[in-house]
C-alpha cells in the first residue's frame, strides 16, 4: 500500500469518524448538558463562517452567479434548515438512530432525486442495494418504537434530515458546484437564520454555561464538524478517488453506534445491529459494485 493511499485512507477515515460522532455529541449536549438547538446551530455556523469566509470570498464570482433563490435552496437543504431537522430530532430520538437513519436515508433520496432531476436511472443492482438500505432503516426505526414515547417523531425528523441532505447533494451536481466553495457559501448564508434568534433568545444562557463546555461545543461543532472534516474528506477523495473514499462513509453508522453505547449507554439490540449492518453493507455494495445508467 503506497503512502498516498494510506494518507487518503487516514484522512477520509478521520472525517467519517467525526461525522459518526456528531449524533452522540449533539444528543449528549441536548439531553445531558442542557443546551438548546439554537446553541448547537450557533456553534456550528458562526465559528465555521469566520474560518471559511476567505474561501467564500475567493469563490465570490461562482457564488454570485448562483443567485439568491438557489443559494437559499442550498441553505434549506444542506445548511441551517438541514441541521435544524437533525438536531431537533435528537431531543427525542436516540443518538444511534441519528447516526444510522439520516445517513442511510440520504443516498436513497439522492438516487430518486437524481433520477428525476438529472435523468440518471439507477441500475437494477443499485435499486436492490438502496432497497436493502431502506430495509435497514426501517428495522432501526421499528426497534426504537418501544424505547420511549415520541421516538418515532424524532425518527421522522431524521428521515427528513437525511432526505434533505440527499437533495442537497444532487443540487450541487446539477449546479456544478465544488464541495468546498459550496460549503463555505452555505455556511455564510446560514448566518442570518442562526445568529439573530440566538442573540435574542439564547446568547445569555449559553455563555453562562461552564467555559469548558462552551469551548468544546465550538470546537466540536464549528471546527471539527464544520471545517476540518470537510477538508479531510475532500483531500481523501483527491488521494483515493471518489469510489474508494465513498466506502469510508460506512464508518459513520459504526462509529455512531459505538459512541452512542459508550457515551450515552444506549443499548445496541439485535434488531438495531442487524438493521445497521444490513444498511451499511448495502451502502458498501452500492458504492463499489453498482452504478447508474
Name the helicity range: over 70%
Low-confidence stretches: none
- Whole-Å distance between the termini? 32 Å
Question: Structural class from helices and strands?
Answer: mainly alpha
Helical segment count = 14
Largest sheet: number of strands, sense, barrel closure: none
Total number of strands: 0
Q: How would you sum up the global shape? A: globular
Task: Characterise the protein shown here.
The structure is a single chain. The chain is mainly alpha-helical and 293 residues long. It has one domain. It has 14 helices and no strands. The model has no long low-confidence stretch (mean pLDDT 87).
Summarize the structure.
The protein has 293 residues and is mainly α. It has helices at residues 3-31, 37-58, 60-78, 80-89, 95-98, 101-117, 124-143, 151-174, 179-201, 203-207, 211-240, 242-247, 251-264, 270-289.
Main attributes?
293 residues; globular; mainly alpha
SSE layout and pairing:
Blueprint: H1 3-31, H2 37-58, H3 60-78, H4 80-89, H5 95-98, H6 101-117, H7 124-143, H8 151-174, H9 179-201, H10 203-207, H11 211-240, H12 242-247, H13 251-264, H14 270-289
Amino acid at each position: 500500500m503506497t503512502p498516498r493511499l494510506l494518507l487518503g485512507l487516514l484522512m477520509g477515515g478521520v472525517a467519517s469518524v467525526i461525522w459518526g460522532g456528531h449524533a452522540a455529541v449533539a444528543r449528549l449536549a441536548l439531553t445531558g448538558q442542557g443546551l438548546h438547538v439554537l446553541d448547537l446551530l450557533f456553534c456550528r455556523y458562526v465559528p465555521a463562517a469566520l474560518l471559511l469566509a476567505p474561501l467564500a470570498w475567493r469563490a465570490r464570482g461562482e457564488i454570485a452567479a448562483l443567485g439568491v433563490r438557489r443559494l437559499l435552496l442550498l441553505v434549506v437543504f444542506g445548511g441551517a434548515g438541514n441541521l435544524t431537522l437533525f438536531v431537533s430530532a435528537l431531543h427525542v430520538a436516540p443518538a444511534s438512530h441519528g447516526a444510522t437513519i439520516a445517513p442511510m436515508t440520504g443516498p436513497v433520496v439522492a438516487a430518486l432525486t437524481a433520477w428525476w432531476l438529472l435523468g440518471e436511472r439507477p441500475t437494477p443492482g443499485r435499486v436492490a442495494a438502496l432497497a436493502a438500505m431502506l430495509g435497514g432503516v426501517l428495522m432501526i426505526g421499528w426497534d426504537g418504537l418501544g424505547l420511549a414515547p415520541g421516538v418515532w417523531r424524532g425518527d421522522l425528523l431524521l428521515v427528513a434530515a437525511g432526505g434533505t441532505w440527499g437533495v442537497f447533494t444532487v443540487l450541487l451536481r446539477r449546479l456544478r458546484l465544488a464541495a468546498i466553495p459550496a460549503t463555505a457559501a452555505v455556511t455564510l448564508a446560514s448566518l442570518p437564520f442562526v445568529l439573530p434568534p440566538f442573540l435574542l433568545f439564547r446568547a445569555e444562557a449559553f455563555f453562562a454555561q461552564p467555559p469548558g463546555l462552551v469551548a468544546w461545543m465550538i470546537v466540536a461543532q464549528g471546527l471539527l464538524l464544520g471545517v476540518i472534516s470537510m477538508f479531510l474528506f475532500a483531500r481523501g477523495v483527491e488521494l483515493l478517488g471518489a469510489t474508494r473514499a465513498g466506502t469510508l462513509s460506512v464508518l459513520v453508522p459504526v462509529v455512531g453506534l459505538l459512541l452512542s453505547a459508550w457515551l450515552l449507554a444506549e443499548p445496541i439490540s439485535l434488531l438495531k445491529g442487524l438493521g445497521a449492518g444490513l444498511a451499511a453493507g448495502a451502502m458498501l455494495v452500492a458504492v463499489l459494485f453498482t452504478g447508474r445508467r
